[in-house]
Amino acid sequence: MGAADPALVFRLAAALIFVGERFFRRHTGKSTGSQARKRENNAMTHENWTTQAKSSMRIACATLGVLGLISTGWLTAANAAMSVVGSSYGRDCYLSASMGGDSQQEIHKCRMALTLERLGDRDRAATLVNLGIILTHAARHDEAISSFDSAEKINPGLTEAMINRGNSYIHQREFMLAIAEYDRSLKLGTRRRAEAFANRGLAHEYVADYPRAASDYACALAHREGFPKVDRGLTRVRTKGVEIPECPVELIVSYDTD
Asked: In 3D, which of 162, 149, 147, 165 has the Cα closest to residue 111?
């Protein structure tokens, strides 16, 4: 038997992939590989297809760069969840916020705590922050910001509300508003300094202010050793030719250990 024509084999494989993708989309509602189908329809040779596929992958990776950080869990939002004492729904709300919850059921529990339970000002403000964190996880950023606003009305010095509102602003690409929130939390002496510096560094990175991003990342590490996300941030800013400074001593506060 003669050897099979490579081009024919490739076109057959591409056709099978195309059929498989259509089946997958029909049963999952998801779309995958539209560029691959276009390449197949143009009857490219195996060599040309490989070249263009590699090019597309390079573009995808370059596009992800910093922008992809928003959707890959880079922001340290759940770490700023606030504990609630003596409340069943409130406690569940706190646990959901801490573990990255984003479901309607978890949102409902938070709202049940706010509606049905007798919460003191501290616990009510904390539950509003936790609700906002869950709404942020669910990409309901306007509602999240409203929840953080309500928490801050109860406790104007609640820096967790500021940090998490900053995170919501980053998701909305409102980077300067995010930076202002992190600034406020740091000026008010937040105990979440590592989170505030790390997320402010990311916001500075988004607006291409790499020296400030480097400074923020350095200060985040000064408050929390072993912060892999910040280590990766420093690696990115180094590729921009930025030297990493020491965090100024006056910005380091030892109580940020929780």
From this structure: 147
